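Most newcomers find our protein records easier to grasp once they have seen one. To make this concrete, we reproduce a full record directly below:

…
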Amino acid sequence: MRHVFFSMSLVALLGACALVQGAEVAAPVETSDGEGPLRPNARPEALNTTPAARPPAGARTVEQFDTTSADEKRAAAVAAEQKAASGEGRALGRTVASLGDPAQPGLWIRTPLVSAPAKGRVVYPKNGKAVELDLLPLDGPKTAGSRMSLAALRVIEAPLTDLPEVDVFLN
Protein backbone atom coordinates (compact mmCIF):
# COMPACT_ATOMS: atom_id res chain seq x y z
CA MET A 1 0.00 0.00 0.00
CA ARG A 2 2.88 2.35 0.79
CA HIS A 3 4.35 1.76 -2.67
CA VAL A 4 1.09 2.69 -4.36
CA PHE A 5 0.77 5.87 -2.28
CA PHE A 6 4.42 6.79 -2.98
CA SER A 7 4.01 6.19 -6.74
CA MET A 8 0.86 8.29 -6.92
CA SER A 9 2.53 11.11 -4.96
CA LEU A 10 5.51 11.05 -7.30
CA VAL A 11 3.27 11.25 -10.38
CA ALA A 12 1.36 14.18 -8.84
CA LEU A 13 4.60 16.03 -8.07
CA LEU A 14 5.94 15.53 -11.57
CA GLY A 15 2.67 16.79 -13.02
CA ALA A 16 2.88 19.88 -10.81
CA CYS A 17 6.43 20.53 -12.04
CA ALA A 18 5.22 20.53 -15.63
CA LEU A 19 2.51 23.06 -14.77
CA VAL A 20 4.99 25.35 -13.03
CA GLN A 21 7.51 25.06 -15.85
CA GLY A 22 4.91 25.94 -18.48
CA ALA A 23 3.75 28.96 -16.47
CA GLU A 24 7.09 30.78 -16.65
CA VAL A 25 6.80 33.99 -18.66
CA ALA A 26 9.61 36.46 -19.27
CA ALA A 27 8.91 39.95 -18.04
CA PRO A 28 9.23 42.65 -20.70
CA VAL A 29 12.52 44.51 -20.59
CA GLU A 30 12.03 48.19 -20.00
CA THR A 31 14.17 51.00 -21.35
CA SER A 32 16.28 53.00 -18.94
CA ASP A 33 13.65 55.75 -19.00
CA GLY A 34 10.91 53.20 -18.22
CA GLU A 35 8.90 53.94 -21.36
CA GLY A 36 8.43 50.54 -22.97
CA PRO A 37 10.37 47.60 -24.22
CA LEU A 38 14.05 47.85 -25.04
CA ARG A 39 14.70 47.65 -28.77
CA PRO A 40 18.04 47.20 -30.55
CA ASN A 41 19.62 50.29 -32.03
CA ALA A 42 19.86 50.51 -35.79
CA ARG A 43 23.34 50.02 -37.18
CA PRO A 44 24.87 53.48 -37.80
CA GLU A 45 24.91 54.29 -41.51
CA ALA A 46 28.64 55.17 -41.31
CA LEU A 47 29.39 51.50 -40.62
CA ASN A 48 27.55 50.21 -43.67
CA THR A 49 30.71 50.37 -45.75
CA THR A 50 30.62 46.90 -47.25
CA PRO A 51 28.02 46.72 -50.01
CA ALA A 52 28.17 42.93 -50.17
CA ALA A 53 24.97 41.22 -51.17
CA ARG A 54 23.30 38.58 -49.02
CA PRO A 55 24.17 35.04 -50.07
CA PRO A 56 21.62 33.16 -52.16
CA ALA A 57 19.02 31.13 -50.30
CA GLY A 58 20.50 27.84 -51.48
CA ALA A 59 24.11 28.69 -50.57
CA ARG A 60 26.12 25.65 -49.48
CA THR A 61 29.81 26.41 -50.12
CA VAL A 62 32.19 28.99 -48.68
CA GLU A 63 32.36 30.75 -52.06
CA GLN A 64 28.57 30.98 -52.26
CA PHE A 65 28.29 32.43 -48.74
CA ASP A 66 31.18 34.89 -49.15
CA THR A 67 29.70 37.63 -51.34
CA THR A 68 32.35 40.23 -50.52
CA SER A 69 34.29 40.97 -53.71
CA ALA A 70 38.03 40.37 -54.07
CA ASP A 71 38.53 44.13 -54.58
CA GLU A 72 36.69 44.93 -51.33
CA LYS A 73 38.80 42.40 -49.44
CA ARG A 74 42.02 43.72 -50.98
CA ALA A 75 41.08 47.31 -50.09
CA ALA A 76 40.30 46.31 -46.49
CA ALA A 77 43.64 44.49 -46.17
CA VAL A 78 45.60 47.42 -47.62
CA ALA A 79 43.82 49.93 -45.36
CA ALA A 80 44.59 47.78 -42.31
CA GLU A 81 48.27 47.47 -43.29
CA GLN A 82 48.55 51.24 -43.76
CA LYS A 83 46.96 51.96 -40.38
CA ALA A 84 49.21 49.41 -38.68
CA ALA A 85 52.32 50.85 -40.38
CA SER A 86 51.43 54.38 -39.26
CA GLY A 87 50.67 53.20 -35.72
CA GLU A 88 47.09 54.40 -35.99
CA GLY A 89 44.49 52.88 -33.72
CA ARG A 90 44.21 51.81 -30.13
CA ALA A 91 44.69 48.19 -29.10
CA LEU A 92 41.56 46.82 -27.41
CA GLY A 93 42.90 43.37 -26.67
CA ARG A 94 43.12 39.81 -27.90
CA THR A 95 40.04 37.67 -28.39
CA VAL A 96 39.18 34.19 -29.61
CA ALA A 97 37.20 34.51 -32.83
CA SER A 98 34.78 31.93 -34.12
CA LEU A 99 32.95 32.04 -37.42
CA GLY A 100 29.92 34.30 -37.12
CA ASP A 101 26.71 34.05 -39.14
CA PRO A 102 27.91 33.15 -42.65
CA ALA A 103 24.71 34.57 -44.14
CA GLN A 104 25.56 38.06 -42.85
CA PRO A 105 27.70 39.66 -45.58
CA GLY A 106 30.55 42.07 -45.17
CA LEU A 107 33.66 42.56 -43.06
CA TRP A 108 32.79 42.67 -39.35
CA ILE A 109 33.51 41.26 -35.92
CA ARG A 110 31.04 41.06 -33.03
CA THR A 111 33.09 41.44 -29.89
CA PRO A 112 32.61 42.32 -26.23
CA LEU A 113 35.72 44.53 -26.51
CA VAL A 114 33.54 47.41 -27.81
CA SER A 115 30.37 48.86 -26.35
CA ALA A 116 29.26 50.75 -29.47
CA PRO A 117 29.68 50.16 -33.21
CA ALA A 118 32.94 51.53 -34.60
CA LYS A 119 35.55 51.05 -37.32
CA GLY A 120 38.70 49.13 -36.53
CA ARG A 121 41.02 46.39 -37.62
CA VAL A 122 41.86 42.84 -36.66
CA VAL A 123 45.31 41.26 -36.87
CA TYR A 124 45.90 37.50 -36.93
CA PRO A 125 49.22 37.21 -35.03
CA LYS A 126 50.08 33.77 -36.47
CA ASN A 127 50.69 35.23 -39.93
CA GLY A 128 50.53 39.02 -39.39
CA LYS A 129 47.62 39.48 -41.83
CA ALA A 130 45.15 42.25 -40.99
CA VAL A 131 41.77 43.49 -42.18
CA GLU A 132 39.89 46.73 -41.62
CA LEU A 133 36.30 46.02 -40.57
CA ASP A 134 33.29 47.05 -38.54
CA LEU A 135 33.54 46.47 -34.79
CA LEU A 136 30.11 45.53 -33.48
CA PRO A 137 29.28 45.12 -29.78
CA LEU A 138 28.52 41.70 -28.34
CA ASP A 139 27.06 41.26 -24.87
CA GLY A 140 29.30 39.48 -22.42
CA PRO A 141 32.43 39.93 -20.37
CA LYS A 142 35.55 41.28 -22.08
CA THR A 143 37.11 37.81 -21.76
CA ALA A 144 34.32 36.20 -23.81
CA GLY A 145 34.98 35.19 -27.39
CA SER A 146 34.00 37.04 -30.54
CA ARG A 147 32.25 36.17 -33.79
CA MET A 148 33.88 37.16 -37.05
CA SER A 149 32.49 37.33 -40.58
CA LEU A 150 33.37 34.70 -43.13
CA ALA A 151 34.90 37.32 -45.43
CA ALA A 152 37.10 38.77 -42.67
CA LEU A 153 38.37 35.33 -41.62
CA ARG A 154 39.26 34.61 -45.24
CA VAL A 155 41.16 37.91 -45.62
CA ILE A 156 43.39 37.15 -42.62
CA GLU A 157 43.66 33.52 -43.78
CA ALA A 158 42.52 32.11 -40.45
CA PRO A 159 41.11 28.58 -40.43
CA LEU A 160 37.32 28.66 -40.62
CA THR A 161 36.87 25.61 -38.40
CA ASP A 162 39.37 26.68 -35.75
CA LEU A 163 39.16 29.21 -32.92
CA PRO A 164 41.92 31.66 -33.88
CA GLU A 165 43.09 34.37 -31.51
CA VAL A 166 43.08 37.84 -33.06
CA ASP A 167 44.20 41.27 -31.88
CA VAL A 168 41.51 43.95 -32.13
CA PHE A 169 42.26 47.64 -32.72
CA LEU A 170 39.91 50.63 -32.67
CA ASN A 171 40.56 53.25 -35.40
Notes: Confidence is low (pLDDT under 50) at residues 19-34.
